[in-house]
Amino acid sequence: MTKQAFVLGWPIEHSRSPAMLNAAFRALGLDATMSSRAVPPERLADAIAELRALPALGASVTIPHKEALLALADEVSPEARAIGAANCLEFRDGNVIAHNTDAPGFADSLGFMPRNAVILGAGGAARAVAHGLVTGSINAGAGSRAATRVAVVARRLASWIASHAWSDLPALLGDADLLVDCTSAGLDPRTDEELADSVPLGTLPRTATVATVIYHRPTKLLERAAALGYSTVDGRGMLVHQGARALTIWTGLPAPIEVMSRALDDSLAPSRK
Ligand code: NDP
Asked: What is the CB neighbour count within 10 angstroms for residue 269?
């Protein structure tokens, strides 16, 4: 019988997960499908109970449910516990296990471990990126090299990390090899431009990389960084790699990253023009 995976969110129409995961299932020859389910917050517990009863092959979970999952799962992975949010559910032996694959997904997408990272924003994506960088560099065990240092710059001080005010940005960038925009400013053209104007890119060493978690289209900050000659990384890689890690949790198989990247690009093509 065809195994069923789901992506749960509210709203959910924008989700690219079915395009990526269905392409991956086809490439692996698995008799499985992923479909999206629009689940309002008050229905989340019932929706998870339905998936447990099936049982589902697995579920990806997105806004606004990432924090609520922790209280609804039977087990929570150490990463999800530390971050305070989960984006992936595994159904194993009647139990629901909550994982966070956003965190290692960002580190996977980067392709290198920075020494000094500066993160803009202090919301859920920032927490996952910070955790992925710190634990990723520890796990990589790069000889005697110290683990990645992370500075978070936010317009409101964050409770989960010693964060910095925006006015500290020039000094922090001067010694950084990675700048990651984890704000949601890029979702709106007006705030996208404002955020790009507020980052003194010129103070960042030319060898540094500039990244964003936004994947729908290039942000202004990323465009300006590329024009100045910096290496840039957009949020597509993080999205692909969090999905790839979820697929491996559900099936035990290595994910076809190239196939998933192509499926994501195809599904984004209209919005990235
Ligand atoms: P949150 O709402 O939790 O956090 C957003 C953060 O951005 C807050 O710190 C907020 O500050 C800050 N912010 C928003 N606008 C501005 C601005 N104009 N200037 C400065 N700071 C600003 O959202 P998430 O962290 O959950 O998501 C952020 C983005 O990450 C979303 O666009 C989401 O799509 C993307 N994302 C991408 C993933 C991927 O796989 N590529 C995975 C997860 C998320 P304040 O609190 O002051 O409002």
From this structure: 9
Which residues 6+ apart lie within 8 Å of 245 measured at CB? 88, 99, 101, 104, 105, 108, 255
Q: Which atom of ligand 1 is nearest to the CA of 216?
A: 34
Give pLDDT tens digits for 154-204: 998 877 777 899 999 999 999 999 999 999 999 999 999 999 999 999 999
- Whole-prediction pTM value? 0.95
Q: Tokens 């920075």 sit at which residue? A: 114
Residues identified as active-site: 66
Spatial contact of 84 and 117, defined as CB atoms under 8 Å apart: no
Residue 40 contacts residue 69 (beta carbons within 8 Å) = no
* Residues in the ligand 1 pocket, defined by CB under 6 Å: 102, 121-126, 154-156, 182-185, 187, 191, 194-195, 213-215, 235, 238-239, 242
30 backbone dihedrals φ, ψ, rounded to 5°:
-90, 140
